[in-house]
Specification:
Layout: E1 11-18, H1 29-43, E2 53-56, H2 77-83, E3 90-93, H3 99-113, E4 118-125, H4 154-170, H5 174-188, H6 203-207, E5 211-213, E6 216-217, E7 227-235, H7 236-239, E8 247-254, H8 268-286, E9 295-297, H9 304-312, H10 321-326, H11 345-349, H12 355-365, E10 379-384, E11 391-396
Parallel strand pairs: 2-3, 2-4, 9-10
Antiparallel strand pairs: 1-7, 1-8, 4-7, 5-6, 8-11, 10-11
GO molecular function, one term: acyltransferase activity, transferring groups other than amino-acyl groups
InterPro entries: Thiolase, Thiolase-like, Thiolase_C_2
Protein name: Thiolase family protein
Length: 400
């Protein structure tokens, strides 16, 4: 794509629902997904019979050996469509790392092309019993033969590599990273559905946490949870007749990672160079610049992602994010600061992937954030995964 997205501001979010976020749910994930999707449809002022599109990303994000069973530990679009009480003519799923931008992009294109009028998009996350990322291998084949026997297995070691690079290259410290965790947990503690509701974190508690893969400690990782969030999308014209103020999808972009690396080899230069190109495409597709955004919601499944996203999106210079955050640059209680984690993110809510970022953009731009409603919320950006492997969506409170 070159230039502004043809469907920019032509498709809108018109309703949502969010399940409880629990460490482990006593009910199958499919039941939670079905209830949440139906609640989102009702919130949009619609009935299941009016829904003719279902879109998701059903990836089960674990490096362990847990079984993937549709309707139990994962919920595909076809599984939900068969049980929703609708007769959808468009059912699709995104396959890739940037799950939230990917599924939003599919839904936007479906509505803009006339393939569906009302589309439910959802993300359903399951937390299995036992160790989430336990390595069950007795033999390593393929690319993992070069990494797993040496202990380089799973996402913790993967993110420790560029995090160490950043610390060494720019003189950053774990004490500076404490500001990220304090901000995320402060905001998450204020949100009723958050796993960390009522549980803020101090810098001292963060620095005292057990080390998992140096310099990644326990609190640098979002906690695995079970939960579902769903949204309804339709055309801007249809949205005008529905109960809630619509929030328009202005543009989106997904990254194309460097292919010369092993899957877990994420050097800092790859993250930043591919991420910068990802951000360039994002702003071009939405027809805006970083200066236009007053509600950035950066992804934080691992805390270093906050620094990386702030820099590739252009909110602070490369190598300066650690100082920017430590100096209060993202303090959501400061009206002059950039509220990059005002929705709590993954660190403040639990491992709901990019849902906290997407939901905060919807709630704030639609004026539905309640006591947390910000005075200024017109253009938001919601990020997901690493800048070089994920993507982002720009949302707008007004059509432009």
């Amino acid at each position: 794509m070159s230039g502004r997205m043809a469907a920019s501001n032509q498709v809108a979010l018109v309703g949502y629902a969010h399940s409880a976020v629990e460490r482990h749910s006593d009910r199958p994930l499919g039941v939670l997904a079905l209830e949440t999707a139906r609640a989102a449809i009702a919130d949009a002022g619609l009935t299941p019979a009016q829904v003719d599109g279902v879109v998701t990303s059903a990836l089960f994000p674990t490096a362990g050996s847990h079984a993937v069973e549709d309707g139990v530990s994962s919920v595909t679009a076809s599984w939900l469509a068969e049980r929703l009480g609708a007769s959808p003519r468009y059912v699709s799923g995104f396959q890739g790392i940037g799950q939230i931008p990917g599924m939003v992009g599919i839904a936007v294109n479906a509505v803009a092309a006339g393939a569906a009028d009302y589309v439910v998009v959802y993300r359903a996350l399951h937390n299995p019993r036992g160790s989430y990322h336990a390595n069950p291998m007795r033999a390593a084949a393929g690319s993992q033969q070069w990494t797993a026997p040496q202990g380089f297995f799973g996402p913790l070691q993967m993110i420790a590599l560029p995090y160490n690079e950043y610390l060494a290259r720019y003189g950053a410290t774990r004490e500076a990273m404490a500001a990220v965790l304090v901000e995320a947990r402060k905001n998450g503690s204020r949100i009723p559905w958050s796993f960390w509701n009522g549980k803020p974190l101090t810098a001292q508690e963060y620095l005292a946490a057990p080390m998992l893969a140096d310099p990644v400690c326990r609190y640098d990782c979002d906690i695995p949870v079970s939960g579902v969030a769903a949204f309804v999308l339709t055309s801007a014209e249809r949205a005008a007749d529905l109960p809630h103020r619509p929030v328009y999808v202005a543009g989106y972009s997904n990254a194309t990672p460097a292919t010369r690396r092993l899957p877990l080899h994420w050097p800092l230069d790859d993250i930043m160079s591919v991420g910068a190109e990802n951000a360039r495409r994002l702003w071009e597709s939405a027809g805006v610049s970083p200066a236009d955004v007053d509600l950035p919601q950066v992804y934080d499944g691992f805390s270093p992602f906050v620094w990386f996203w702030l820099e590739v999106l252009g909110f602070c210079p490369v190598g300066e994010a650690h100082r920017f955050v430590a100096d209060g640059g993202i303090d959501s209680d400061d009206p002059k600061a950039l509220p990059a984690l005002s929705g709590g993110g993954a660190l403040g809510n639990g491992r709901m992937h990019g849902i906290p970022q997407m939901l905060e953009c919807y709630l704030q731009l639609s004026g539905r954030a309640g006591e947390r409603q910000r005075e200024r919320a017109s253009i938001g950006v919601a990020c997901h995964s690493s800048p070089h492997y994920g993507g982002a969506v720009v949302y707008s409170a007004e059509r432009y």
